[in-house]
Amino acid sequence: METINKNEEYVKEEITRSMQHLSDKRVQHAIKVQSYIRSYVTDFLREAGYIEIAPIIISPLTDPLNHPVYDPKIHAYGGDMWITQSMIFHKQIAVQELKKIFIMSPNVRLETEEKSKSGRHLYEFTQIDVEALEKSREEMMSLAEDMIIYTISRLKKEHKEELEYFHRTLPDYAKPFPVITFEEAEKKYGKGFETPLSKESSTPVWVVDIPLKEREFYDREYPEKPGILRDMDLIWPEGFEEASSGGEREYELSQILDRIQKKGQTEEQFKWFIELAKQGIKYTAGFGIGIERFTRFVCGVEKIEDVTTFPKVPGRISL
Q: Which residues form the Aminoacyl-transfer RNA synthetases class-II family profile domain (predicted)?
């Protein structure tokens, strides 16, 4: 009975907290900004010839991720399925026929509790996921730059009052954004280079050529530089850190099998994707940008939970 009473009290507190959160004027303004961002990025991608497809919520195939999270696994119909951690494999499959796609994709990543202090982690968030057939990393970097510049420009032009509410002045960013390799960034700033690099930058900056140990198995290695991937991360300036992650995808069966082994994973885990590779796939490239993180940067707020309606902060059961 004591446990039940504690649970009941927690539910009451959570409902109160949620209502107080939604009544906060700063949160209301940030939610408006997020709505505009969602609209503008999809406008841009449609104009660029990208087709929106529906998100996948549950599947026997999802992103393994390269950092510790709680396992969002469900057993049903005689097998295991996972709540989508990202649509990386589904993007690579769908784009074989649809050529250029995007998804406003809900992601669930049950991060460990210490991530609650970062100000930029939610365990449920939305990612604008983009993928294109037979495109290079550099082409996708250029697309992402155009999309960000377009979105911020429209916000400044059409919703200046929202930026003024947050006392936020955003410059007119110009492409190409600066580029630094992972090795160069680590040499200059040390292993935790993302924070100082972000704080020092006045414009978004790309980190490229990321080591295999820092990534999942599915991204493409340089043929001439084993262990280094044709990947890119975009870092927001002013200390807001990661904006986007992406790269070229591995598509040759032998490479996929080799990389799964190198990462200490099993072919059974990815049998669905391996079967696709056996049948033959063409190379693709893409990226994902967190909508809440985009909003946090535009509004210049400290905590990511202040830019969304029902924030899921790691370590807490929330409405």
A: 100-311
**Of residues 51, 131, 50, 96, the one with CA closest to residue 282:** 96
| Residue 94 C-alpha from the chain's centroid | 19
Q: Assess if residue 13 is contained within a domain.
A: no
Tell me how far apart the alpha carbons of residues 218 and 283 are, in angstroms, rounded to a whole number.
11
CA 38 and chain centroid, separation: 14
Number of domains forming the structure of the chain: 1
How many C-beta atoms lie closer than 10 Å to residue 105's C-beta? Answer: 23
Could you list the beta-strand ranges (E) of the chain: 51-52, 58-59, 69-70, 73-76, 79-83, 100-108, 110-111, 124-133, 179-181, 205-211, 221-222, 225-236, 241-248, 284-290
Domain that holds residue 198: 23-305
Query: How is residue 60 annotated by DSSP?
Result: S
The residues, ordered by sequence, that sit 6+ positions from 152 with a Cβ below 8 Å of its Cβ are 170, 173, 298
* Distance separating alpha carbons of residues 251 and 260, to the nearest angstrom: 13
Q: In this structure, which amino acid lies at residue 204?
A: P
Token reading at 13: 């507190």
Tokens of 206: 């790309």
Q: According to the model, what pLDDT value does residue 314 have?
A: 92
- Residue 243 inside a domain? The answer is yes
- Percentage of the residues of the chain whose pLDDT score is greater than 90: 80
- Is residue 17 in some structural domain? no
Cα within 13 Å of Cα(62), Cβ side: 23
pTM: 0.93
Widest distance between CA atoms in the chain: 65
**Rounded CA gap, 50 and 284, in Å?**
14
Report the CATH number that the domain containing residue 50 is assigned in CATH. Answer: 3.30.930.10
User: Count H helices, E strands: the chain?
Assistant: 10, 14
